[in-house]
Amino acid sequence: GAVVSQHPSRVICKSGTSVKIECRSLDFQATTMFWYRQFPKKSLMLMATSNEGSKATYEQGVEKDKFLINHASLTLSTLTVTSAHPEDSSFYICSARESGRPNTEAFFGQGTRLTVV
Amino acid sequence: SQKIEQNSEALNIQEGKTATLTCNYTNYSPAYLQWYRQDPGRGPVFLLLIRENEKEKRKERLKVTFDTTLKQSLFHITASQPADSATYLCALDEANTGKLIFGQGTTLQVKP
C-alpha cells in the first residue's frame, strides 16, 4: 500500500522555540494533505487542510499563525509549531490521499510526539 | 450538530470470541464509512471502507455493516486474538471536502 512518512517521530523543544514537522507521500502524489492533533486517549482532531500551491485552510479554533503549514510540492507538506508552549505538547499526525482518488482510504504518517519544556 | 460516536468504554473480550464495535452518527449523510486501527504512539492504519449501497463488507476475520437508516456501522472481529488489541476508529468524509472526521475510538483488549 501507499506510504506516508512523517519526521521526526519525537521532538523535545524549549518554550518559545519553533518546531517543524515534515510529511511526505513516498509513492504517490497528494494535492491535499491533512494535519491532525491527538490528545491522550482522545480521537484525532483535524487541524487544517494543506493544499499544494495554495494556502492551507484551518479548522475553527486553530490559530494559523501558531501552526504554519506549507505544501510546497505534491509529495511534501510541513507543519511548523511557532513559539511553542507546553500546552502545544501533543501527538501530531498527517495524512494524505492519492490525488484524483478522493473517495478512498487515507494513509497516515507515523505521528510526531512533541514535548515542549 | 454533527456527531460520530463510538463505544466510549474499553471493550475486553476473551481470545477466540467475536468483538463487536459500534459507530453511530448524526447529521451526516455519508456516501461511505471507514474503519481504522490505531496502536499506541502510531498513526491510524486503514482497515475497511463500506459504501452506502453496501450492507456488509468482509476482509479475512473482519466484517463491517452499514445501516444508513439507523445511521450506524458495526465492526466485527471474529476469532479474536491478543494481537487484535488496539484502538479502532470509525471515520466519515465531510461532504465534498475530502476531510476525514473521526469518532473517539474504542479500545479493544483481547485476553489470552
Q: Tell me the number of strands of chain A.
A: 11
- Which structural class best describes the helix and strand composition of chain A? mainly beta
How many helical stretches of chain A?
0
Mind summarizing the main beta sheet of chain A?
A: 7 strands, mixed
Largest interface: A-B, 25 and 23 residues
Strand content of chain B: over 45%
Number of helices of chain B: 0
Q: Please, what is the average pLDDT of chain B?
A: 93
Query: What is the N-to-C succession of helices and strands of chain B?
Result: EEEEEEEEEEE
Helicity of chain A, as a percent range: under 10%
> Roughly how much helix do the residues of chain B carry, as a percent range?
under 10%
Order of helices and strands of chain A: EEEEEEEEEEE
Name the overall outline of chain B.
Answer: globular
| Major pleated sheet of chain B | 6 strands, mixed
* Molecular shape of chain A: globular
Distance between the ends of chain A: 37 Å
Low-confidence stretches of chain A: none
Residue stretches of chain B low in confidence (pLDDT < 50, at least 5 long) are none
Task: Provide structural commentary.
- The complex is a heterodimer of chains A (117) and B (112).
- Chain A is globular and about 40 Å long.
- In chain A, strands 2, 4, 5, 6, 9, 10 and 11 form a 7-stranded mixed beta sheet that branches. In chain A, strands 1-3-8-7 form a 4-stranded antiparallel beta sheet, with no helix packed on it.
- The termini of chain A are far apart.
- Helix content of chain A is 0%, strand content 50%.
- In chain A, strand 5 (44-51) and strand 6 (57-58) form a beta hairpin.
- Chain A has strands at 4-7, 10-13, 19-25, 32-38, 44-51, 57-58, 67-73, 76-81, 90-96, 107-108, 112-116.
- Chain A is built from no helices and 11 strands.
- Chain A is mostly beta strands and 117 residues long.
- The mean pLDDT of chain A is 93.
- Chain B is mostly beta strands.
- Chain B has no helices and 11 strands.
- In chain B, the strands form 2 sheets. In chain B, strands 2, 4, 5, 9, 10 and 11 form a 6-stranded mixed beta sheet that branches. In chain B, strands 1-3-8-7-6 form a 5-stranded antiparallel beta sheet, with no helix packed on it.
- The radius of gyration of chain B is 13 Å and the shape is globular.
- The model of chain B has no long low-confidence stretch (mean pLDDT 93).
- The chains are: A mainly beta (117), B mainly beta (112).
- The A-B interface holds A 1, 4, 6, 32, 34, 42-44, 46, 49, 91, 93, 95, 97, 102-111, 113 and B 31-32, 34, 36, 41-46, 49, 89, 91, 93, 97-105.
